[in-house]
Amino acid sequence: MPIFMRKFLINKWIEENSKGWCKKSTLVLFIIKYYYMASEPMYEMLSKTLAIYGLNTTDIKEILDGFIPSYGAYMGGLAALDAGSSILTGQLALGRARVIEFQGALRDTLPLLTEIGGNFESIVKAITDSTGALQRNVIFTPEIYQELYATTKVLNTEIGVLIPAFESVGITTANITKNVENSLDYIRSIGVDAKKVMGSVVENTDMLNRFSFKEGVLGFTKMAAQASMLKIDMSAVQNFADKVFEPEGAIEVASTFQRLGIYVGDLIDPFALLNKSLNDPQGLIVSLAEAGQKFTQLSEDGTRFEINPSAINQMKKMAELAGLSLKDYTKTVLALTEFNDRISDFDFSFDISEEQKMFVANMAYLNKDGKYVIQIEGSEKLVTSLSEEQIKKIASDTDGEKTMVELAKDSLSVADATYNSLNAIKYKILFGSMGDDTLRFKEDFREINLAKIKQLSDSIPGMSERENINKEIYESLKADNMADTLHGVNDAFSDLLTNIGNEYGGANKAFYDATTSGNQAKAMFDALIDPLGTVIGNLQQFNDTMNTAIINTINDYLEGNIPLAEGGLAYEPTRAIVGDNRNAQTDPEVIAPLSKLKSMLATTNNVSSENKLTIEVVPINVDGTKAYSEIKNYEFYLNSQNTDKKLNIKTNFGRT
After folding, report:
1. Do 527 and 506 reside in the same domain of the chain?
2. How many CB atoms lie within 10 A of CB 173?
3. Total structural domains in the chain?
4. pTM of the prediction?
5. What confidence tens digit (pLDDT) does each residue in 160-176 have?
6. Least confident stretch, 41-55, 226-240, 415-429, 447-461
7. DSSP helix/strand/coil, 141
8. Contact 404, 177 (CB under 8 A)
9. Distance between CA atoms of 382 and 370, rounded to whole angstroms?
10. Do 338 and 362 share a structural domain?
11. Are 604 and 510 in the same domain?
């Protein structure tokens, strides 16, 4: 590549970086700089540097060479847009009215999705999934598609699942990502499994319509995070809340806990149960787990908590009351007991938020000695020995607020992130030159081209017309002018294709002259029109092959089945081909009944001498009557053979 081109490109991307487009992509800029600016020996250094990050210089070179799109890449890009928009029009059962809109969405979205690991198929699927989920033909902005795709990558779900889940609770598609981002910020701030909790949120969004959460999706997420820490399924929370939602159920639960002698939280107050069943289902399940803590104890070795064997029967009754199995209820009680024990070991006497407390506590674990510890700089530190400064430092190690796109990028390896960023730049350059005017020109040309192809197709005889032609050919074969008919058929088809070719070529030339003003436009026109020339050529070849096959087939058939081909007498109606002998103009055949043969022969007496056949019989000493009879028989034979209409037989003889 010329040095001036390398310098131009690197300066262009440095300028782009200063605008913030790829401000954080320092490795990408490094690659571009050394690929386009460095001398050849520097490429070895570049190769070694890239290898550290798991990058291959051959792959990088292939991508960077695409920074200057070739004619083939340009045409391939247009073809990809056309193919993608055709899939969308088919999926949505639409005509071509919105095809430019679809192609524009594909063109503008590809670089954005490429940054986070998407491709052309990902965009088409994102659009079709969203329209299918909404059941209406809506096209969003490229940024919304990028956010939706990033969300599905982070949560390991599908757009077709995500949109209906949130739309069912009144959250529009454009606001899904923001709600998920707020929820994920909270989940990360308390140190629990983000994918598992958000997966539970998406799966159970219908609970947002059932319960009243002050903070909407965020409040629901907090309940899901609490359920995750207590190792209880969200459906169990809903079942317990549904039971105490009815006055009869609330009274039954409260009275049962009173009989068991359990006075924890609001479990013995039916009115409090009714209120929590609607406004605080999270508090219900926490109260239920707290009620079981009185039956837990530390194991003999001091490394785990367990249920007191003497309390199993009471635990079972409480589980049945809440609609849980004993196993699930035991698991929830032990999880809450262990968490409370763990967080109690920390000294949180200084100013620290509840979320930070939970985040730090969720990083601790019980070691082999039964002590809670945290990993700090590669070594275990006892929780009880942590200073305020150390705890605050641990609590501040969260990533803070992040967008879904940033989270999706963070999940990529260095190699994948680099390849994606470079490909995104390449696609911005390639598709950036395909504005709406270019797309409209291509679509207009498509319409004109298809119209001409249809005109060409309509000019070719249909089935009924071909049947008529075949019938005419068949009737002609039965007549005496078969050769003329075959030549006529051949000429008719040749004229048809010639007229079509002239008409089509003239129209396209006019369109060509009107639209091709530059080399690139001409090349684009030629690339699109060449297949039409192939079609017409194939039709001409088909015409020639068809004519040859028809003539050869008929000739092959007739050569072995021509009646009276060698002459003879016809004693019944017989179809035959006559006049096909060589020089028939001067040496015609005789076709007549024997009774009219003499009169026909009489008309040939005026022919020239070179066409006369004279038979002279010299006198011989034979029985005259017998000789006369033999000669007349021979005369009859010659006439029957009909060798020459200009036959003159002269018999001179005498009797002895």
Report:
1. yes
2. 19
3. 4
4. 0.61
5. 999 999 998 889 999 99
6. 41-55
7. coil
8. yes
9. 11
10. no
11. no
